[in-house]
Amino acid sequence: MYASPPSMFATPAVSVVLSVHNDAPFLAAAIESILAQSVRDFEFLIVDDGATDGSGAIIDRYAAADSRIRAFHQPNRGLIFSLNRMIAEARAPLIARMDGDDVALPERFAAQMRFLSAHTDHGVLGTGVVGIDVHGAVRRDWSVAYPTDDAAFRAALPGGALICHPSVMMRRDLVLAVGGYRAAYRHSEDYDLWLRLSERTRITSLPERLLHYRGSPDQVSRRHGLEQRYGAAVALAAHRHRADGRPDPTQGLERLPPLGDLDALFGTPGTARGVRATLIEGSLYDGDGLAGPAHRALLDYLRETPRHRRTPGLWRAAGRMIRSGHPLAAGRLALALARR
């Protein structure tokens, strides 16, 4: 166990925020990787978000042994509520994100703090990551290169790999200034936040791989991929709305409206069509999603979009739908493609 020094820092340099919901198999390793950071001047806020697998007891055990840990227990309220709660409670000027199934390398905080101290025009900083599986082994089938300067980050905003959320360190005052994470963007709350922060500050990632990022079948991008992509498409539309000097029509919403209501919400004809096109383009590799909840949007997209303006790869998407066990939906897509 990593005991704190007798005299605690009155105002820590970093507030680490970790929301936990049923991460018991990996939680001890995640917590210990934070306590093993070469930088010791931090507080560690951990929310037990209604866990039912004993995660709460693990958190309490570490909190009893290290006074830097501040433990909170609540009924399950979700990641957005939990992160906003911890950011409001945080005492440090820097917020470091962490997930309950990942592992931070010992120099992560030191490297990020050095960069942010030297680059005061940057408000958000991620790191490179190493993908690991549920057993902790390095994944050879997965890798991602995040932008390592602000210009590349902005170029990737419309749909590229931007930044690894649990690797991020960010300035608390900026996060509060843009309103934190927004409830309407459930499962795409990080992308919405990056868009709003990009309007106020520079954002990038260190090239060094300072986080082991664990992939699992339970990941949000797998369980809620379509909802995540829809939220991201609406967030991008709202970002462009703000860039034109118009108020954000999604501000204050608890949930996003359905696709058919977007033109009325934004007051701009064609908003729904643009969001639909972005959604389809991002769903081409999701055979289940295209055959299920996104199928009507896909057929509407084909009906409204001339051949020369369609996103490429739709015939291959039909093949993926067949391989995912949806031959009827694939047949409807093939007929629509052949017909128009």
From TrEMBL:
Keyword line: Glycosyltransferase, Transferase
Family: Belongs to the glycosyltransferase 2 family.
Origin superkingdom: Bacteria
Any one GO molecular function term: glycosyltransferase activity
All copies of domain Glycosyltransferase 2-like, residue ranges: 15-175
Name the UniProt record assigns to this protein: Glycosyl transferase family 2
Signal peptide feature range: none
Family matches, as SUPFAM superfamilies: Nucleotide-diphospho-sugar transferases
Source lineage: Bacteria, Pseudomonadati, Pseudomonadota, Alphaproteobacteria, Sphingomonadales
Pfam families per the UniProt record, alphabetical: Glycos_transf_2
InterPro entries in UniProt: Glyco_trans_2-like, Glycosyltransf_2, Nucleotide-diphossugar_trans
